[in-house]
Amino acid sequence: MSRIAACFKALKAQQKTALVPYVTAGDSHPSLTVPLMHRMVAAGADIIELGIPFSDPMADGPTIQLACERALVHNVSLRDVITMVADFRQKDQMTPVVLMGYLNPIEVMGYQNFAESASQAGVDAALIVDLPPEESTDILPIFKQHDLDTIYLLAPTTTPERMRIVCEAGSGFVYYVSLKGVTGANNLDVKAVAKRLDEIRTISTLPIGVGFGVKDAETAANVAKLADAVVVGSVLVRMIEAYPDNQAGDDEKIMSNISELLSSMRSAMDS
Amino acid sequence: MQFSDFDWNSMPDAAGHFGIHGGRFVAETLMEAIEALDKAYSELKNNAEFQAEYDNDLRHYVGRPSPLYLAERWSRELGGANIYLKREDLNHTGAHKINNTIGQALLAKYMNKKRIIAETGAGQHGVATATIAARLGLECVVYMGEVDVKRQAPNVYRMKLLGAEVRPVSSGSKTLKDALNEAMRDWVTNVDDTFYVLGTVAGPAPYPEMVRDFQTIIGREAREQIQQQAGCLPDALVACVGGGSNAIGLFHEFLGDEPVKIYGVEAAGEGLETGNHAAPLCMGKPGVLHGNRTYLMNDPNGQIIETHSVSAGLDYPGVGPEHSWLKDIGRVDYVAVDDKEAMTAFHALTRIEGIIPALESSHALAYAMKLAPTLSKDKNIIVNLSGRGDKDINTVAALEGITL
Looking at the DSSP assignment, which residues form a beta bridge with residue A49? Predict the structure, then answer.
């Protein structure tokens, strides 16, 4: 069983929802990422989403665009991101890691090359924001061959016909974008989300992650009642953004602030 | 491939692909909006009422047909082929961009959208969008890189006068590609009431096909005009290529005329060898950006790199996917001219023909200056004079150390 499937199975047995933090790899500097991943697991994260820095993250808001720019100052490449996951796996063989990013860096590295290296490093899945199922016919068999799950997004505007196409192509889990907009946008409407998740469940048995607009413990707990996974991104990235100068002690402050928020989300979700 | 037998309107395929290029590489958050646009456009493109309204606007609002002008004095000085200029600079708003914005704004009206957004580099597309928004009474927001806001100040003011809100974009390289990112973000966020008027033959399907269809009026007119004036088809076509909408507009009608040589001119900036250019077709590799696969300028890690050109409208790291395909099949020759050559052509046309060309179009003119003397005097070249240069006078003056 894949790490992701095992993770959801174990959580289901405990009647818990997965907490999935997102950070951009290499933000604010490359050596923060792996220690931060471990700390997030210690604070209650079940799955880690690691962003691949890209110069033109069109579907993201300003927060993640700036995170990409900070990482790119250090020339963090897709290969570097894969190496970070390999480092993380030295101490953690359990926690699933999902790489999230845009197609061009993967296309330039080559699908085969990427799938092989990522899989070897212990990456479990890829979420390629600008690669819809219709354009995935070349990549899917290669990912499958290397046991990489492919996670797709579903949007509030996705029609039932497309939901079927997306859920059929996807594996691991499906990521429901809770509002119209880019990452880091406002206010998630819990009632509207609940209705959409019911629709998705009539179509697919894949676990459903919900993200965009989860900012605090209360929202996380509300979403946890509906979803199989709660994805938290921009609010964590802003905690990194708050210490842009890489001074002594900054890393520790970032890690403890992020841990604190994740812990509070964890306990709110579990209670 | 037999160019004369090929059905050039059969491209792109149903999924928007031109060979390996094109397609629809967008986040799921945009998919519904793009499918709705695709559906609306497929219905309307063959709708007689829509076409009649579009044709009527082109004639009475834009001022088409635009003339095909034989630059006799300049041709004589160059001592070779006759150079004909397709005068898109004489369109309302001063460039070919309005052919497309008229069409898309009409589509927005048929789709009942109240708000239109656009990205702009040189500002010509922004002005053309703001113009049509004013005429149709639509709310209009234009995204423009901070760098371009500075170097194209007259156009920024023009857009404001027309009632558009110009939002400067400070992310990334602060130029056209970043404006496009920001426009896409706006669209995702306001998808219910907003129509995105994309300015070139790039982006996710159906934009490359749709914008091409709205621009092919250039080539249809030119094909008729040259036969009337010269009595034959041209020997060569020349147009500048940033995203490539004016070029595809001129080229498309001639693709099946095998003897007609076609040249797309990219911006070599400070020189192709310096790396500071905007010539993805000459120097780039296929990749995926802004919703389509196409030749791109990216680094070995797949990051999009900053481009350089004296002309804001050519300062873009990608290019329309149809051009990428036309390069792959060998139908069009893509070449590049640098900033200096473009400036020389700018001054030449201004002084010899009394026409101030846009810096974008000056790239096409610069290539024609090289090509014409290699051809005999009975040959004919059509150069797409895609825009007028009034917007560039500050840039040109600054290069010569003059502050206006």
Answer: A22, A98
Mean pLDDT of all residues belonging to chain A: 95
Decide: A184 and A236 in contact? Cβ < 8 Å. Answer: no
Q: Residue A250: how many CA atoms within 13 Å on its side-chain side? A: 15
CB B142 within 8 A of CB B160: no
Q: Is residue A86 part of a domain?
A: yes
Identify whether A104 is part of a domain.
Answer: yes
- What pLDDT is recorded for position A184? 64
| B383 phi, psi to nearest 5 deg | -110, 130
User: pLDDT of A155-205, one tens digit each?
Assistant: 999 999 999 999 999 999 999 998 777 666 666 788 889 999 999 999 999
Of A84-88, A243-247, A257-261, B304-308, least confident by mean pLDDT is A243-247
pLDDT of residue B35: 94
Range of the domain at A90: 3-263
Q: What are phi and psi of A229, to 5 degrees?
A: -150, 145
Q: Which helix (H) or strand (E) holds A39?
A: helix A33-42
CA distance A66 to A26: 12
Q: What is the pLDDT of residue A152?
A: 98
pTM of the model: 0.95
Position B122 scores a pLDDT of 83
* Six token digits for residue A136: 């995935």
Task: Confirm if B118 and B140 have CB atoms less than 8 A apart.
Answer: yes
pLDDT bracket for residue A125 (50, 70, 90): very high
Residue with tokens 């804001």, as numbered in its chain: B312
Distance CA B155, CA B144 (A): 11
Structural domains in chain A (count): 1
In whole angstroms, what separates CA B78 from the centre of its chain? 27
Smallest CA–CA distance, residue B49 to chain A, in Å, is: 30
Distance separating alpha carbons of residues A4 and B206, to the nearest angstrom: 36
Query: Is B189–A182 a contact, with Cβ atoms under 8 angstroms apart?
Result: yes
DSSP annotation of B60 reads I
For the record, the structure tokens of A11 come out as 């959580």
The CATH code of the domain that includes A51 is 3.20.20.70
Token pair for residue A183? 């990452």
Q: List Cβ neighbours of B247 (8 Å cut-off, separation of 6 or more).
A: B239, B240, B241, B264, B323, B384
Q: Does residue A131 sit in helix, strand or coil?
A: coil
Check if the beta carbon of residue A82 is closer than 8 Å to that of residue A118. Answer: yes
> Comparing C-alpha atoms, which of B237, B169, B190 is closest to residue B381?
B237
Confidence check: pLDDT of B191 > 70:
yes
Q: What is the residue whose two structure tokens read 């359990």?
A: A94
Residue B175 is given by DSSP the state S
Residues 37-66 of A with CB under 8 A from B: 53-59, 61-62, 65-66
The residue in chain B having the minimum alpha-carbon distance to the alpha carbon of residue A103 is B288
Helix axes B176-189, B28-44, angle to 10 degrees: 90
Q: Which of A24, A54, A56, A196 to mutate: most B Cβ within 10 Å?
A: A56
Residue A269 domain-assigned (yes or no): no
In Å, what is the CA distance from B181 to each residue of A143, B138, B193, B196?
28, 22, 19, 12
Distance of CA A242 to the CA centre of its chain: 21
CB contact under 8 A, A130 and B26: yes
Rounded distance between C-alpha atoms, residue B341 and residue B369, angstroms: 9
ipTM of the assembly? 0.94
Per-chain mean pLDDT for chain B: 96
Question: Per the domain annotation, does A80 fall within a domain?
Answer: yes
Best to test chain B binding among A76, A81, A106, A108 (most B CBs inside 10 Å): A108
